[in-house]
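Entry details:
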Amino acid sequence: MEHKLFKYMTEFTSLRVEQQQAIMEDIQIKEYKKGTVLLTQEDVPRKCYFVLKGCIRQYSINEEGKEFTSNFYTEDQAIANFNRYKKEKQSEYYLTCLEDCILVVGDLDTEEKMYKKYAGLETMTRKMVEKNLGEVQDEFAEFIATTPEKRFKTLLQKRPELINRVPQYQLASYLGMTPESLSRIKKRVSDGKVM
């Protein structure tokens, strides 16, 4: 798993090998079992994550108890927490492991110390967040401008692994449709009836 981290440090920073190795000694890599809740809507976020292995679902639950899936994080994706700067600081969503996961765990309370100790680490984090934010913006713009069928076909092109890794009702929520609609669309796509 460490080779993935070295890959990111090499791609996003100009840190020397010795600095990269020192960072590797300071970071936490943890394993979590399927079903582990990393964050709830009532929690004050204290951690950020980078997925080395596994799948994490981000979702919220409204007052009526209905769940809304907003993202799935899989290998090589960072889970940043931006709402920690809000006054109430409570999370607006849950993070739950859908599979056994191996994650790099960052402590938000010690983040500044790490950045001061390793200046290139802040650059790497910023570049990764910018890349992730750009992808999210593109996905959101496409999501609101397309039909449910197009959303499903885009998912098949960009993240086909989710089809077999995620329960259908969660995938349907993520795509903004009911599980029944998703079943019909999947059948039409498999039969070649959707263009």
Observations:
- The first strand starts at residue 28 and ends at 32.
- Strands lie at 28-32, 37-39, 47-53, 56-61, 67-73, 78-79, 94-97, 101-107.
- Helices lie at 2-12, 17-26, 111-117, 119-145, 148-158, 162-165, 168-175, 179-190.
